[in-house]
Amino acid sequence: xxxxxxxxxxxxxxxxxxxxxxxxxxxxxxxxxxxxxxxxxxxxxxxxxxxxxxxxxxxxxxxxxxxxxxxxxxxxxxxxxxxxxxxxxxxxxxxxxxxxxxxxxxxxxxxxxxxxxxxxxxxxxxxxxxxxxxxxxxxxxxxxxxxxxxxxxxxxxxxxxxxxxxxxxxxxxxxxxxxxxxxxxxxxxxxxxxxxxxxxxxxxxxxxxxxxxxxxxxxxxxxxxxxxxxxxxxxxxxxxxxxxxxxxxxxxxxxxxxxxxxxxxxxxxxxxxxxxxxxxxxxxxxxxxxxxxxxxxxxxxxxxxxxxxxxxxxxxxxxxxxxxxxxxxxxxxxxxxxxxxxxxxxxxxxxxxxxxxxxxxxxxxxxxxxxxxx
Amino acid sequence: xxxxxxxxxxxxxxxxxxxxxxxxxxxxxxxxxxxxxxxxxxxxxxxxxxxxxxxxxxxxxxxxxxxxxxxxxxxxxxxxxxxxxxxxxxxxxxxxxxxxxxxxxxxxxxxxxxxxxxxxxxxxxxxxxxxxxxxxxxxxxxxxxxxxxxxxxxxxxxxxxxxxxxxxxxxxxxxxxxxxxxxxxxxxxxxxxxxxxxxxxxxxxxxxxxxxxxxxxxxxxxxxxxxxxxxxxxxxxxxxxxxxxxxxxxxxxxxxxxxxxxxxxxxxxxxxxxxxxxxxxxxxxxxxxxxxxxxxxxxxxxxxxxxxxxxxxxxxxxxxxxxxxxxxxxxxxxxxxxxxxxxxxxxxxxxxxxxxxxxxxxxxxxxxxxxxxx
Amino acid sequence: xxxxxxxxxxxxxxxxxxxxxxxxxxxxxxxxxxxxxxxxxxxxxxxxxxxxxxxxxxxxxxxxxxxxxxxxxxxxxxxxxxxxxxxxxxxxxxxxxxxxxxxxxxxxxxxxxxxxxxxxxxxxxxxxxxxxxxxxxxxxxxxxxxxxxxxxxxxxxxxxxxxxxxxxxxxxxxxxxxxxxxxxxxxxxxxxxxxxxxxxxxxxxxxxxxxxxxxxxxxxxxxxxxxxxxxxxxxxxxxxxxxxxxxxxxxxxxxxxxxxxxxxxxxxxxxxxxxxxxxxxxxxxxxxxxxxxxxxxxxxxxxxxxxxxxxxxxxxxxxxxxxxxxxxxxxxxxxxxxxxxxxxxxxxxxxxxxxxxxxxxxxxxxxxxxxxxx
Amino acid sequence: xxxxxxxxxxxxxxxxxxxxxxxxxxxxxxxxxxxxxxxxxxxxxxxxxxxxxxxxxxxxxxxxxxxxxxxxxxxxxxxxxxxxxxxxxxxxxxxxxxxxxxxxxxxxxxxxxxxxxxxxxxxxxxxxxxxxxxxxxxxxxxxxxxxxxxxxxxxxxxxxxxxxxxxxxxxxxxxxxxxxxxxxxxxxxxxxxxxxxxxxxxxxxxxxxxxxxxxxxxxxxxxxxxxxxxxxxxxxxxxxxxxxxxxxxxxxxxxxxxxxxxxxxxxxxxxxxxxxxxxxxxxxxxxxxxxxxxxxxxxxxxxxxxxxxxxxxxxxxxxxxxxxxxxxxxxxxxxxxxxxxxxxxxxxxxxxxxxxxxxxxxxxxxxxxxxxxx
Lengths: 374, 374, 374, 374
What we know:
4 copies of one chain form a homotetramer. By secondary structure, chain A is of the alpha+beta class. Chain A is built from 9 helices and 14 strands. The two termini of chain A are 16 Å apart.
C-alpha cells in the first residue's frame, strides 16, 4: 500500500476545482480517497458553515468521479475542516488517498500509513461524556488496524472530528429530559473535544481508562494525548477518526513526525519536527525544499492562567475576538515563519491535546532522497 | 547624556502602578521622562479609547511627581500607544527617559540616543496631505537635533503618532467646506499614516520631496521609510515624533538596531536584528538573556495582493476581524517566538513603512558586556 | 397569471428542506419559480459564503424537480440572499412563483405582479460605474415588461443583486490595467450598490439620466430610488433584477405596498405600509393576522452624519462590528416589533435607496377578504 | 427632598464636559449627586474599559467641585455604566441628584425618590453565590430606607452593579483554593448578575429566601425581579445599588413607572409604560414632548430556546458578535422607535430580571402639568 497526500488551494468554501482537476488529470484516483483535511474561510466556531459547504462540494466531486452517491461518499470518507484562516494562514485542503495496488513496503523501512474509522452516532447528551470517550477509543483502534500500525509509538497524528450542536439542539435535548453536559454551544464543543482526546489517549495507552474518566475532564491536564487533534462541527453526527503514522506494511517516499509544543512560543518544537523528517530550516525552510512539505497539522490553545512565559495575554477576556481565533493566528504564524509556508492546518481548542497551554505540531514530508524512508 | 528604557506590565488601561512604583523607588526620575510607547488592550482602531485612558493616568502619575499640571506633561511628553494585544502579545509600556547629567559618551562609542518633537496641530483637512508631510518632516529634523544624531543612517526608529478623527468630526469638516481626503474614519487614519511616513522619509533622505508628493501616496510603494512606525489616535491633534538612534554624544550600555521585514514571514530579519545587538537566538533567545531585551518595535501590514509567498490569505476580505488585527497577531507571534518574549510593540498600518506587504523590526537591548557599546 | 409567495424557515445555510417539502407536496410547482429572496446566517459582508451555499442547495432542489441542470436553474432564477440575522431577525427565504395558467385578473382590480431579468456580466472595472447603471436600468425595464406593469408608480419593490468582488480579484483587475473604482472589497460593494440604485431610479423615472451620472454617486443623495433594494455578493457576475408591483393583468389575493423610511426611527412608515395593505397593528399585528404577512423587505443605512434625531450614534466608528450589521439589527427589530414577526428581509447598504440615513419598507400581504384586491 | 435627573451627551468615554458645564452653570450641585447611570462606547463585556475611564473623569469632575478626593467621591457615588451602544443607541449618562433642602412633598402626591447603598466587598469566590445574594438584599433594603420608600410596590427600578473579574483573577483565586463558581470571565459575570437579581427579589418580596437559593440560579426562571437591572464591571469590588421609586416624602415634577417586557418584541410594554407616566405615543412620542423623557432604562436578554415568537434566532450561536450585543441593539431600537429618542440605557444579561427571554422597561419623565405628581 502507498499513501498519497495532495494539497489544493481553496479560493472559497465552494471551490472544488483543485480536486476536480486532479481527478480529471489522473493525479488522484477518486476511489482511493480515504480522508480530506483542510482549513476553510469561516470563523471555526459554532456558526461556521463553510465546513459543511466544502464538504458538500468535495463529496459531490468525488461522487461524480466514482459513480457513488454523495451520501455514500460522505459515509466512507471523513471530511475534516477547521474553520478560521486567521493572520497569514491560507485556506486549503489535503486529500489523503491510498493506493492498495502498490507494492508492499521494504522490511525495516516504514512509510506513511493512513487508516480511518467512523464511530456510531452521538446523541446531544453523549457529547463530552464517557459514551464519546469509549466510542472514540474504539474508532481509533479500528483505524490503527486499518492502517496496519501495530505500535502506538508509530502513530504520529490522530485527527478526530466530533459533533458540535447548536444552542437550539441543546435546548431541545434538555427539554426532552436528556440535558447536555453544557448548555452553551461553544462550551459543549469544548467538552466534546476533551472526550475525543481522552478516547485517543485511552486507545494509544497514553492514559489508562481510569485516568480518562469524566472526572478528569478540564481538571487533570496531565491526562492528555500528544498526537490527538480534535475538532467539532455541526455537520457531523459521529466521531470521524483519521490515524496517520508509520508502518513497514506501506511503501512510498512520505514520512510523518510530530512534536508536542510546550507553549505558544515553543519554536524549538517546530525546528525539531522538521529535523525529524529531514528538512533543514536555518532559519526557514528554503524555497526549493518547501515543496517537500506535504501537510502540516498544528493544535494550540490559549494558556489558561492568562499568561505566556509569565507575561499577561488578553485572549481569554476578549469579547470581540474569540480566544481560539487569537491563538490560531498566533501559533499559525510562528509555524509559518519557520516553514516559509502558510498552508497549515491550525486548530484551536487543544484541551488535553499536548501540554496544557501548548499543543502539537505534525509534519508530513517527502524524504530528501525521494525513496521509501529507511 | 544617557538614555533609560524601563518596561512596565499593564494590568488594564488605567494601570499606572508600574510607573508610579518606579518613580517612588527612584528608578525613574519623572522629570527625565521624554516619551512613553506602549501596547494597550483596545482594538487599535478608531473606537479604541484605551490609548487615551492610559495617557490620562500616566500623565497624571508624572504630573504628581513633578508638580506640573497634567496638561503640561501631555504637552511635552509624547504618549504613543498602539491598541490591540492580538494573540500572544502582552499589554505593556516602555518609559524612555534621559539623564542629562550623565557623563558624555566616549568618542567612537555611540550609545542609545533619543529625541522628541511635536508638530503644530493638524486640521481634519490637513490629515493625509502635504501639510502633514511637511509638518512631520520638520518635527523629525527637530527631534534628530534634540537627540544629537547627525547622520540619517544612525536613526534606527522613528515613531510618530498623528491624529485620527471620528466620522462625526470628518462630516463636520466637510460641512464646513474643508473635506478630508477620505470620508471614512478608518481610511482617513490610513492616509494620515502615509503622510507621516512620507514626512519621515523626506527628513531622513530616504526619498526626495518630489517623490514624497501626495500623488505617490498609496500608489508608489517604493517610496518608503525603513525606520518609520506611524500610528494614529483620536486623542492627539498634532504629530508626535520620537526619534531613536545611536550617537557618540550619549553614554550607557543600551543600543538599538533595526531591519526591514520583506514580508510577514521574514523570520530572517528577526534573527538578523538580534545579531545586530549582540543577542543569540538558537532558535530562541535564552531565558537568561531575555532581560537584555528592553524594547521591541514591529511594524507590519497585510499584503495588498491577497497573497503571502504566493499563497492566498483572507485578511483583507474579513468582515469580522479587521485586517490590522489579523496581521498584528501573526507577525507579533512570529517575532515573539524568536525572542521568547511577548511584550512587543506591534503596530499595523505599515503603508510606505518598510517594504510593501512587510514592515520593520527594531530592538533596543543592553550590550552583553554591560558597557557603553563600542 | 397569479403570483405565489411561500416562506420557509432556514435551519442552516444548507437547508433546502422547506422548499423540497413544498415541491414534494405540490404546494409549489418548481417550474413556476421565478425568484428566491432570503436572509441567511452569514455576516452579509464580503466573506459571507452562506449566500452561495444556500443558492447551491436550493438550485439543486429545483433542478431535481424540473430535470434541469443546476446551472440552468441558476441562470434563469435570481437567488438573492442578504446575509446577517442580527438581533431578532430570523433566517428564512421566500419563494416567488408565477402560475401562468391562472385566469387573468379582473379589470380595475390589480394583483401582485412579478417580473425578473438578468443583465449582462459585469467586469470588476464596470462595478460602480455607468456601465452598471445602464445595464441595471435596462434589466429593470425588461423585468417590468415581463411583469406587465406599465406605470412606474405600480412598482413597489425592485430587488437587485449585483456582483461583489474579493480584494484578490480587485488587485488582479488593477494589475491588468483595469482598476476598479475602489481598491477595497467592502467599498467596491458600496459603489456597486449605488450604481444599481441609480439604474433603478433611471428606469423608473425617479431621476433623469443626467442626475444619475457617476458624479452624483455618494454626493447628491437627493438622487435616489424609493423602491430599490440593492445587495451584492461574490457569487454573481451580473445584476439580477426582481421587480414586484401591482398589475391588472394578474389575479390572486396578494398585494404589495411600500413606504420610504425617513430615518432609522421612522416607525410611522411601518404602521403606514401595514395600513396600505389592510393590516391593523395596535400596537402590533395580532397573532391571528400575522399569517397574512407573506414577505417583508426592509432597506436601511447608518446615518452618515453620525447622528440619529440629533443624537450621536457610534456605528460608523466601530472597528469590531460593521456598521451595516448594527443598522440591520436595529431597524429589523423596530419593524419586527410592529409586525410581531421576525422573518424579515433586512438589507443594509441603502445608499441612494430611500431617504439619506433612512431606507424603505415593503410588505406583501394577503388581502383581508382573501379576494383579488380591488 | 427633591430628585433631579440631568442627562448629558458623551462624545467619548473621557468626556466629562457635560457634567462640568452643568456644575459650572449651577444647574447641578456637585454635593447633591447620589448616582450616575450611563451608556458608554465599549463592548459591554469583560474587556470593556470605557466604563472605568468615564468613572475616572466624572468622579474627578465632581471631586474638583466639592473639594473631596476622587476616591471619596467614588466611595459615596455609584457610577453605573453599561458599555455597548449597539445600533441606534447613543452614548450618554444621567446624573441623579437629591436636593435635601427642598420642601417636603404633598401628602398623597408621591414624587420621584432615589436611594443608594454600597454593599461590602465581594471576593472572587463570593460572586454568584449566596454571599452576594445576601449582601445585595441588605444593600437594597438600606437604599430603600434612604429613599424613604416604604412599600416594595413603590420601587420601580433597582440598578445594581456588581463586580466582574478577569480570567486572570479567576485563575488566581482558584490557585489560592477559592475557586469561583465559573472558570470563565463571561460566565462568572452572568452568575454575578443572577445573584444580584436574587438579592433584589428577596429584598422586595418578589421571591422568598428559599426560592432565591443558589440551586434556583439558571434553573427556575420563575424566580425573578421585575424591577432589577443588574450589570457587572471589573472596576468595582462591591455591589453598588440604586433604588428608584415614588415616595410622598419627596416633591418635584418627576415620576417613574416600569413594565416587564414579555419578550424581545413586546412593544406593548413600551406603549404601556409611556401611558403610566402620562406620555402619548401615536405611534411615536412627539418631538415637543420628547424633552419630558428624562431617563429610560431597559433590560433584555436573548431568548434561551433560540426562538422569538416561535421563529429561530441566531444570537446564541454567533461566534463573531456576542449575544448580549445583538439583543441590546435590537430591543434598544424597538424602544427608541416608540420614543423617538436614542439616549436609552439598555443593558443585556437579564437573567432572572423580568420574564425569561424578555426584560423590563422603566421611564423617568416630567409630568405634563409640570407639578408634583398627584
